[in-house]
Design a protein that fits this description.
Elements lengths: L1 H12 L12 H4 L8 H4 L2 E11 L2 E10 L5 E10 L5 E6 L3 E5 L4 E5 L9 E8 L3
Antiparallel strand pairs: 1-2, 2-6, 3-4, 3-5, 3-7
């Protein structure tokens, strides 16, 4: 589990690419990494990240904090990965809208991710992408 948390931190810190991602069928683009906006992502901090077992799989639970001095309106999603680092089929959540006041943190629990989830990555972008 500690390895998964380290991977989450590394994946979040290493969010690469900018622009928006298409919201096509999960099966069609499951292998593609979701794209975020580095300007939004650098203003966010993840804390207390963990995977919790739920009846149908796992849920990612974490605190998402606005590190900036201004209100932040954005949307985010989570992509889950298997043991070998491959994106999992059905392991991508829908985009979730969130507003955070300056330095505000909020606990987040994702929709159920596949039981094979070993790590996950959060991506964020401006609302409406």
């Amino acid at each position: 589990m500690k390895l998964a948390l380290v991977l989450v931190a590394a994946l979040f810190a290493g969010c690469r690419s900018s622009g928006s991602s298409a919201d096509g069928a999960q099966g069609a683009d499951a292998a593609a990494d979701p794209r975020g906006d580095p300007a939004i992502e650098e203003r966010l901090e993840l804390a207390d990240a963990r995977l919790e077992r739920v009846p149908a799989g796992v849920a990612a639970v974490f605190v998402l904090r606005n590190r900036g001095d201004a209100k932040l309106s954005f949307e985010f999603r989570v992509q889950s990965y298997g043991r070998s680092g491959e994106p999992l089929q059905g392991g991508r959540t829908a985009w979730v809208l969130l507003d955070l006041d300056p330095h505000e943190g909020r606990e987040v629990r994702t929709a159920t991710l596949p039981a094979q989830t070993e790590s996950w990555r959060l991506v964020a972008r401006k609302q409406g992408g």
